[in-house]
Amino acid sequence: MAASRPRWNKPWPLRGSACPNSNGRRCRGVRSAECANGLSRLLLLVSVAAVWSCRPAQAASKEAVDAYNLGNRQYKNGKYEDAVGSYEKCLKQHARSAAVYYNLGNAYFQAGDLGRAVLAYERAKVLTPRDPDLLQNLHQASLLTRDEIELPPRSGLGAALELGLSRVSVNELALVASLGYLLLVTLLFVRLFVEGAVVRRALGTAAIVLGIAVCTGVGALGLKLQHRHADRSTVVLADEAIVRSGPTQNFDPVFKLHAGTVVSVVETRGVWERVEASPKLTGWLRRDAVESVRQ
User: Fold this and answer.
1) 135 and 197: one domain?
2) In sequence order, which residues have a C-beta less than 8 Å from that of residue 221 and are 6 or more positions away?
3) Among 143, 175, 200, where does a domain finish?
4) Which residues contact 178 (CB under 8 A, 6 or more apart)?
5) Which among 83, 106, 240, 241 is least buried, having the fewest CB atoms inside 10 angstroms?
């Protein structure tokens, strides 16, 4: 397994903290004559609204950072179960990040809990889908699962689109769309004050192309959000889970699943869930034997 990678060496700075000047007062920007223009103010407000949705998260609390750093030390000293407790404490402080889930997965794996290791890796993958260390560790953990499930090959535009969206995160798409929108607003703003016909035409063409790109990015973001909301991937945590033909103990067992196997939840009835491991492998198992990747 790849070594744990501490990513919080110190607490993150709080968003919106004061910037003191030589007099100890909060810094203020100098308002220029251009900023007084009503149109520029409107464009500025619209631009700020565009990036508000992907603003940085609030800084992690001191308790979360301390728990994370303690978990890293415990992991390095071979105290994997203690490290699990520290990382879980960090997550309870709402400090959810790919780094925490990645290290939690490593700690669970070293502690011998394959199911929860895969679950932590899958949650980290939602936040950072292209991390090579994460993908390698998830692959190695998946090789140790006892269930060999073959999924039918998929092809076509839908499969290609789903594959492409799986390589980017929601935050990345939101950031790209917002930056593209800001650039589009800037081009349109500059075009208002340019007098040359050739330059205005070039800026207009660039704005049209960029507008199409922004619309495409927003559409991709919408599809990604829809896919994430509809995704019901679930990881088997129990060492052995009996899958039955119906949602009670009275129904006959049809097959078994083991820790670390990823399935999809199709239906829920009380404490029972109907899962689909493949189109030919479906059945009911108790909810306490699995846990959803989505939180």
Assistant:
1) no
2) 170, 173, 174, 177
3) 143
4) 50, 51, 53, 54
5) 240
Would you state the pLDDT for residue 195? 84
* pLDDT attached to residue 37: 42
Instruction: Report yes or no on 28 lying in a domain.
Output: no
- Domain stops at, among 111, 143, 175: 143
**Nearest of 170, 294, 156, 183 to residue 220 by alpha carbon:** 170
As for how many domains the chain has, the answer is 3
* CB-count burial class (<10 Å; 0-12, 13-18, 19+) for 107: buried
- Does a structural domain hold residue 8? no
Coil, helix or strand at residue 173: helix
Which pLDDT belongs to residue 30? Answer: 28
Six token digits for residue 275: 């899962």
Beta strands 272-278 and 281-286: pairing type? antiparallel
Q: Are 239 and 259 in contact (CB under 8 A)?
A: yes
pLDDT at 1: 52
pLDDT digits 0-9 by tens, 68-82: 999 999 999 999 999
Check if the beta carbon of residue 201 is closer than 8 Å to that of residue 245: no
The reported pTM is 0.74
Question: For residue 3, is it within any domain?
Answer: no
Burial 219-258 (b: 16+ CB within 10 A, else e): ebbeebeeeeeeebebbbbbeebbbbeebeeeeeeeebbb
What is the structure's pLDDT at 82? 96
**Domain membership of residue 270 as a residue range:** 233-292
Residues in the chain, pLDDT under 70:
1-60, 150-155
Question: What would the two tokens of residue 178 be?
Answer: 């917002």
Q: CATH number for the domain including 119?
A: 1.25.40.10
Residue 50 lies in a domain: no
pLDDT at 148: 76
pLDDT of residue 59: 57
